[in-house]
Design a protein that fits this description.
Helix content is 11%, strand content 23%. It contains one helix and six strands, in the order αββββββ. The strands form three sheets. It has a two-stranded antiparallel sheet. Strands 3-4 form a two-stranded antiparallel sheet. Residues 1-17 form the signal peptide.
Length: 137
């Protein structure tokens, strides 16, 4: 809808634009090949910029030469980003055999894999039999 308004404003501006004065004199020599344009061969000194916003609020558009008889481009709005499927976050807290905590948080979507968390090793010198550091009394 906004792009249609911009297009109407563009054509109104072109209709009221004063004609550009023609330059006389000798033509200049072309020293490099220019790819053919699907527009008239006259030089266009007028540039318009069209800015639009899609239904998600993302801006798009661009600038183009805007002289009578020149084509007006159309700008395609960018697609809206797809929403996240799942907003569920789970956290796994665990304690290893020597009392050290480990784990983490992850997205718990129906199609998402559940991560596994590896317990950290106990510190060196830890006595597993008594649950405290020592020499294994």
């Amino acid at each position: 809808m906004k792009f249609a308004y911009i297009s109407v404003a563009l054509f109104a501006a072109l209709a009221t634009a004063a004609p550009q004065p023609q330059r006389g004199g000798r033509p200049t020599r072309i020293t490099s090949r220019v790819p053919p344009r699907p527009t008239p061969t006259k030089k266009c000194d007028m540039t318009l910029c069209a800015d639009a916003v899609n239904e998600c609020g993302m801006m798009y558009g661009g600038c183009f030469p805007a002289c009578p008889g020149w084509p007006t481009p159309t700008f395609t709005p960018p697609p809206c980003p797809t929403p996240k499927k799942c907003d569920i976050i789970l956290c796994s807290d665990a304690v290893n055999e020597c009392g050290m905590m480990y784990g983490g948080c992850f997205e718990a979507c129906p199609d998402s894999p559940t991560p596994t968390f590896t317990p950290p090793p106990c510190p060196s010198g830890w006595d597993k039999g008594h649950g405290k550091p020592g020499k294994g009394n």
